[in-house]
Specification:
The complex is a heterodimer of chains A (119) and B (172). Chain A has 2 helices and 3 strands; from the N terminus they run H-H-E-E-E. In chain B, 37% of the residues are buried. Chain B has a single domain, classed as PhyR, sigma-like (SL) domain (Butyryl-CoA Dehydrogenase, subunit A, domain 3, Up-down Bundle), CATH 1.20.140.160. The chains are: A alpha+beta (119), B mainly alpha (172). At the A-B interface, helix 1 and helix 2 of A face helix 2, helix 3, helix 7, helix 8 and helix 10 of B.
């Protein structure tokens, strides 16, 4: 056994740095808690998603057929809209009447003027 | 010379009825020490130890049926360390190992030699380092170390021989 073997033996007995091991347990437990919380959340989310997907959906409602019926046309004539016709001034035209067989009597607007027309 | 309680048979005789706290209480030193020597950093070793026990917790049911759960813990620890080492830059770039280190006056010469050896371990190739740590620091047999590393007993012996040759060379 040479000096190297002795040194290796001493190295194997050397204590780890103080405080190094004290944190291992708490750190492992903290990580496990963190993982557990994450797992619970994921599981809850997955369950919720499954529930939503598996939830029975309502069947489409078959509405009763609407009876067809012919509605009779209303029995009245629509009155045409009365459009006021602009009034025209009437011109009295001479009126003619046959008098005495071969004469035509024409009256005018003026009662004093009477025209006799011989045919 | 080595602590006989480090033998795998003694480390974990019963696994099935242990709670996580018991596991941590019993084995955290072993896991931490292995990771610490593999990585050379107490902070990294703490992270690895935490990860190893989280994995152990996840496989608590399987482990309870195993004949030797300590071997499993060692294996996971070493693999975690090897992963971490692989992800990092080569050790030679960031570990300075001066040939003649100026030690603080108060530090004993032996302690200085130990510190230097611990740093030199980090220069070894990871597989050789793991073999040396498991057998010569953790006190396992070559066969047990081989089972943990997934190599033959002979390969472990060869790796340790090479590692020691390098260490002797670097220390002179």
């Amino acid at each position: 056994m040479d000096d190297l073997d002795l040194l290796l033996g001493e190295l194997s007995r050397e204590a780890p740095p103080a405080g190094s091991l004290a944190q291992v347990g708490p750190r492992v437990r903290a990580r496990l808690r963190q993982r557990a919380v994450t797992r619970y959340f994921l599981a809850a989310a997955a369950m919720l998603a499954t529930l939503i997907l598996a939830w029975p959906r309502p069947e489409p409602v078959a509405w009763p057929g609407v009876p067809e019926f012919a509605m009779p046309a209303p029995d009245f004539a629509l009155s045409k809209s009365v459009v006021p016709v602009p009034s025209r001034s009437r011109v009295e035209r001479p009126k003619a009447a046959i008098v005495g067989g071969d004469k035509l009597k024409l009256t005018t607007n003026d009662p004093k003027v009477v025209i006799y027309w011989s045919l | 010379m080595l602590d006989s309680t480090l033998s795998l048979d003694a480390v974990m005789p019963v696994a099935g009825k242990l709670s996580l706290d018991d596991w941590i209480e019993r084995h955290q030193k072993m896991v931490f020490r292995t990771a610490w020597r593999m990585l050379g950093s107490a902070a990294d070793a703490e992270d690895v130890t935490q990860d190893v026990f989280l994995k152990a917790h996840a496989r608590m049911g399987d482990l309870s049926g195993q004949e030797n759960p300590a071997a499993w813990l060692y294996r996971v620890t070493v693999n975690q360390c090897l992963d971490l080492i692989r992800r990092r830059r080569p050790v030679e770039e960031w570990v300075e190992v001066p040939a003649t280190e100026a030690s603080p006056e108060k530090r004993a010469e032996r302690q200085e030699a130990l510190d230097r050896l611990a740093r030199l371990l980090l220069r070894l190739p990871p597989q050789e380092r793991a073999a040396l740590i498991l057998r010569d620091l953790e006190g396992l047999t070559s066969r047990e170390a081989g089972q943990i590393l997934g190599v033959s007993e002979e390969t472990v012996r060869t790796a340790i021989f090479r590692a020691k040759e390098k260490l002797r060379q670097w220390m002179t």
